[in-house]
Structures
1.
Amino acid sequence: MNDTFRKNHGKIIRKNKIKGVISLFNTFIWDFDGTLFDTYPMIVQGYLQALKEYHIDSTKEEVYQILKEYSSAKIAEKYQLDFAELSKKAKVYEEKSAYEPQSFTGTKDVLSFIVARHKGNMILSHRRQASTQALLKKEQLADLVTEVVGPENNFPRKPDPTSLNYLLKQYGLDPKKTVMIGDRALDIDAGKNAGIASIFFDNEHLLTDIQADYRVTSMKEIEKFV
C-alpha cells in the first residue's frame, strides 16, 4: 500500500508539471471531531454527565467553549480532576448517547475529489480508531481514507507533532506537499510543529486567534488546495 501511495503521488506531481498546473498539496491529514464529523453534541453531553459524578454542574456552552478553544484535557485541568479517569467516564456516556453524528456538508465530495486526483486522505484524531472507522463506514467514507491514527497508536496528544511525523515517515510524504486540517488551535499548532502547512476549518466563526496558513468556512473550499 505504501509503495502504491508513493507512486501515485509521484505521477500526479509530474502530470501537473506537464500541464502547467500548480498543485498545492498531495496529502490531506484531517482532524475528525468537529472537522469531518459533527460529533460535538455527544462529546459535550458525555463530559457534562461525567462531571456530575464529581458533583460538578457545568453547562453545555461552557464545556463546548473549552473543547473548541483548548481540549478535553483542559476540562480536567479546570476542575482539578484526573484527565484519564474523566475522559474514560465521558466516553462511556458518549457511547450511550442517542445523538447520531453526521459528516459536515460536502465531506464525501471533497474526500472523493482528492482521491480521484490520486492524492491521499488521512485522519489524525483523539477519537478511538474503532469509533472513527464505524462512523466513516456508516457514510461509505472508509475507502477514501488511507490511515486513521488514534489514541491506540500511543502517540502524545496534539499539538505534539509525533503522530504527524509518523505519517510523514511511514508514507514518505513531502512536508511541503502535506497539510493538516482542523477546527481547533491544537490541530493548527500540530501542523506547525511538524513543519507542514495548516488549514483552519472555521465553519462556526467561534475562534478568532487561530494562526493557520489558510482558513476555510466550508468543505467545498478545500478543493482549491488539491
Note: The longest helix spans residues 2-19.
2.
Amino acid sequence: MWPEPWPEQARGVPNVALRSALFGVFGKGARRYLEQVQVATTGDAQILYTGQRLDQGDLDVWEAILHLARRQPLGVQCEFTAYQLLRLICKTDTGGNRRTLHRRILRLKATALELSCNVQGRRVTYIGSLIHDAIQDDRTKRYVVVINVAWRPFFEAAHFTYIDWVIRNELDGKPLAQWLHGFYSTHDQPYPLTVQFLHKLSGSDTACMRSFRQLLKHAAAEWGIAAKKHGSQVSASLVGDLLHVRHGLSRWRLQAPGEISTEPPLAEPALLPLA
C-alpha cells in the first residue's frame, strides 16, 4: 500500500530519486542513451540505469502520475487523461504539450533500473522501470498506467519525501534550482556540501567547474526567492567551495526526527562526464 495520501499541494517522491542524478540537470538537445550506467547517488544507494537520460520535466510527470495513483493500491491500474496530467503539472492543454507529455511517458516506461538501498535495516533491490505498464486507448485517448507494487519499500517512512509542488512549479524552467529544492527537501539540517559534490550528484553537463559554481549560486538564489514568495524560508550561500543551506521545515514533514545530512560518498562511477 501507499502511505497515507499526501496533500494536494505536495508530491510524494522516493528519496533515492531526489538524492541522485537519476533526474538530472542538462541542456536541451539530443538526449544521450545510457546502457547499464551507474548513476551518481549518495550513501548506500546504487542505481544502474538503462534508457534515455531523464530531466526535471520527466520528474514532474512521474511525480504527477504517482500523485494520481496515490489513492489506490500500488499495482492497480490508474486511469487519467492528458488534460488531467497537464493540469497537474501546470501546463496548458495544447497539441505541443500533449506530444511532449506522451514522449515523457514513453521515456519513463522505457527505463530499466537496478536500484538498491537499505530500507528499514534490510537491503532492497528493485529491478524494473519507473512505470510498470502504460497503455493509451485509441478511441478515448485516456492513459492507463501501473506503478509496480515492488516500489512499496521506497515509500516507507523516512525513505520518501513530500515535495512542495507550489515552490517546485514556481521554479519551472530552472532545472538546477528544482534539483536543489528536491535534494534539500529530503534533509532536515543539511551540512555544507562542496560544489564538486553537487556537480556530480545533480548530473550537470556543465564541464567548467567555475561556470557551474556561478550557476549553482544563481540557482540557490532562485530557490530562495521562490520559497519566500510562498511562505517558506531558505538561506543558501557559497562560502569558498561549500554551499551552506538552511531551510524551514516542510509543511508536510515526513523525515525521521533528528535526521541530519552529511556529505556521504558518491556511488562511483558517477554519471559524468556526458557527451
Note: Residues 209-229 form the longest helix (21 residues).
3.
Amino acid sequence: MPLVGSGRPRPRLVVFDLDRALVDSRPAFAYAIEEAVAAVTGRRLSARDLADAYHTRPWREALRILLDDPRERDAAEALCEQYAARSALKRLLVFDGIGMALDELRGELIDMAAFTRLTYGLARKHAESTGLDRFLSLIVPPPEGRFDPAGQLEQCLALLETHATETAVVAPGRFERSAAERAGAIAFTAAWSVEPDPGGIEVASPAALREAILRRWEGRAPAG
C-alpha cells in the first residue's frame, strides 16, 4: 500500500542530529573506554559516569581524566577507535520511540537526513546497526573532520535540493539549533536527549515529534 500523508501542511525535509537526537551511544562509548583502558593498563573501571558528558567528544578528552601517562592515552585512543568501529556497535541504542517517530514522519511523505560529528564510515555503521539507515536519505559528516552544523546543513540542503524554509532541524544543542535558524530552517529541541540545552520549540519525546512539527507548519504564514 502506498504511503499517504495526512494532507496537513508539512516540511519537505527533517534533519536530525544523528549523534544526540537519534542514537544513544553512551553504552557503546563506555564499553570502548573500559575495554581500551583494561587492555592498556590491566585495570578495570566503569566509564558510565563519563559517558553522559563525553560520549560525543573526542576519545582523548575522556582518556585524559582516566590516564596520566600520554603513551597510555595514545594506545587507549587507538583501541577506542577500533572498538567503536566493531564490537561496540552492538551496544548502540536509539532513544525510546525514535523508530515509531521516524515511521510517522515517513508516513507524512517527509524526507529525512542527519548530520554527524563522526566520519561518514562510522556514522553509516551507527545508522545500519540501529536500523536508522532505512529512514535516512543522507548522512552528512563534518568537513575535514571539524564539526560544522551550519556547513553540514547547507550541504544537506544542496544535495537534497531543498530550501531551508522547507526544513525542520531536530537537535538538543543550542549551537546546532542556532545554526539552523540562521539558515532559515525551523529548529526543534530534542528534549528527550542527554543534557539538552533548554529553549526553543521543545519536544518532550519522540512520540510528540510529528504533531509538534505539523502544528508548527500549520501556524506559519503563507508564503508570499
Note: The longest strand covers residues 13-17.
4.
Amino acid sequence: MHYLCYSSCKRGVTLILRRIQTMTDYPNLREAIVDQAVAIAERSCWEAVRLFDIAAELKITLDDIRPYFREKEDIIDAWFDRADGSMLKLAKQDDFLALPPRERLHRLVMAWLDALAAHRTVTRQMIGSKLEPGHIHIQIPAIMRISRTVQWMREAAQRDGTFLRRALEETALTTLYLATFTRWMFDESDNAQRTRAFLAQQLQLAEILDQAVYGRARADSNHQPDATSGNKTRLIADTTTSGINDDQSAPATSAGNVAVETRTQPE
C-alpha cells in the first residue's frame, strides 16, 4: 500500500515538474506549436505535418498540445488569428482614422495579407487542404472563419451601416477580401504590388457602385468634420487612391489546383 502511494505521488510530481519545464521552455506554447507546424510545412508541405512530429521537435507530448489544438486544422485557424491580430494593431495607429474609409480598408486587407507573406506557399497549402472534396466538417467552419475576419475588418474601419446597407457592405467586403486573397496567393510580384493594385481597383469600382446607389457620403452630425475626428462613413470613401495599374494582374488559379498542391511534397 505504501509502495502504491509512493508510486502515485512520484508520477504526480514528475508530471508537474515536466509541465513546469514545458512552461519554462515555451512561455507561449500555443504560438510555439504554430511556429513549429509552419516550419515543418516549409521543409515538406502542409499535408505532411503531423501533431506527433510537432510534439517530438518541441520535446513535448501530444497531451501538451491537446489543450490548445483539438486537431491539426485548428492550427490553421490560429495561423489566421495572427493575421487578424496584425490587422487590428494597424487600426490602433494614431493617424489611422484620419484616412479616407477606402484607404483604411485597403490598408487593413493588405496588413492581414502581409502578416502571412513570409509563408505564402504554406498558407496556400493550408487553404487547399480545406478545399478538398468531402471535407464538409472543415469547410463549414472555414466559412464562419471568413465571416469573423470580415467583421473585424468592418470594426477596425469603423463601418456603421445598418440593416440592408450593412448586409450589402458585408457582402461586398467579403467578395473583395476573398478575391484579393486568391490573387495574393499566386502573386510573385515585388511586395505583392499586383495584389495591391488589384485591391485598389476593386475598391474604386465599389465606390462608384456605392455612390450610384446611396449618393455622396454625409458627415456624421455627432463629430467635427475635420480629418482627425475619426468620422464613420460609408464603405466607400469620396476620395481615390493613386497608382492603380490596370495591366498588373495575376492569372486566377482554380481551387482544385490549390488542393492538388497540398498533396504533393517537394522533391
Note: The radius of gyration is 23 Å.
